[in-house]
Amino acid sequence: MKTNERLIEALLAMSAGVGVLTTAGILWILVVEAVHFFQQVPLSAFLTDTQWTPLFADKHFGILPLVAGTLLTTAVAVAVALPLGLTIAVYLNEYVAPALRNTLKPLLEVLAAVPTVVYGFFALTQVTPFLQRLVPGLAGFNALSAGLVMGIMILPLVSSLSEDALGAVPRSLREASYAMGATRLQTAFRVVVPAASSGVTVSVVLAISRAVGETMIVAIAAGQEPRLTANPLVPIETITTYIVQVSSGDVAYGTLEYNTIFAAGITLFVLTLGLNNVGYWFRKKYQERYE
Fold first, then answer.
1. CA neighbours closer than 13 Å in the CB half-sphere of residue 230
2. What is the mean pLDDT of residues 188-200?
3. Residue 143: how many other CB atoms lie within 10 Å
4. Lowest mean pLDDT among 69-73, 184-188, 280-284
5. pTM over 0.70
6. Contact status, residue 271 vs residue 70, Cβ threshold 8 Å
């Protein structure tokens, strides 16, 4: 028995170590390659320049336009996925019979299995023409349609994880709310959702991280024009889109232009790491409040 337990512990430790070593290896490659870039481009210019044109004759290496495009499409996606996902989670957990919930939830999660390239072409060929009839001046490539479709893509992530968090709230809290005269809707949004706020926060942070790292939707529907703007009606470029653009093979390996993808990659890594840490902090804060 002890031998079996030690073997299981070793396998679990090995599994955890693979994840840690993989992350460390990715970070090591990014750092080593990014050093070559920052040996030629000052970090101050990288963080403060408002233009990103490393493939043009007049070269600028300011990452802010790419970060702005990434955050803009992510903000639109979260604005769609958060209210819809939370509403769906409340509906599935508080209003639907268990048998029907077990049918609807897997059907909703099928959205997560749709290839992102399909979402991208759907945004370009269906959503953008529809929005152009509603929004005058909307460009053919824009952050709005890409963000809306990205919100649909991450919707199952928010709704499924939020529903699991709502389901973990003790039944006694609901019964106490009903005893105080609250309706089912009041109980759901004023008692159950706050009690499950840590789990809901985790679902939102994971959805944001997923949206920040999305590539195909923004590459197809948002355009490839890096600009420092908060206007979702114009073409933009995200960090992932630029990495795909340079990695297509048109830029020679080892050049300064090629090394920009590692500088952009480490920026994306730091951005995602920061979002995850913020989510962890919020989760711990709400856990301490409601424990």
1. 1
2. 85
3. 32
4. 280-284
5. yes
6. yes
Q: Which has the closest alpha carbon to 150: 240, 244, 221?
A: 221
Range of lowest pLDDT (53-67, 82-96, 237-251, 276-290): 276-290
Q: Report residue 49 CA to chain centroid gap.
A: 25
pLDDT in tens, 105-130: 888 888 888 889 999 999 999 999 99
Cα distances from 144 to residues 23, 92, 218, 230, in angstroms, run 32, 29, 10, 11
Residue tagged 């795909």 (tokens)? 244
Q: By the 8 A CB rule, do 48 and 62 touch?
A: yes
The Cα 286–Cα 281 span in angstroms is 9
Helices vs strands, H then E, count in the chain: 14, 0
Cα 68 to Cα 226: distance, rounded to the nearest angstrom: 9
Q: Which amino acid is at 140?
A: G
Q: Which two tokens stand for residue 176?
A: 């106490």
* CATH fold of the domain at 68-223+267-290: MetI-like fold (1.10.3720)
**90 Cβ contact partners less than 8 Å away, ≥ 6 residues apart:** 166, 188, 189, 192, 193
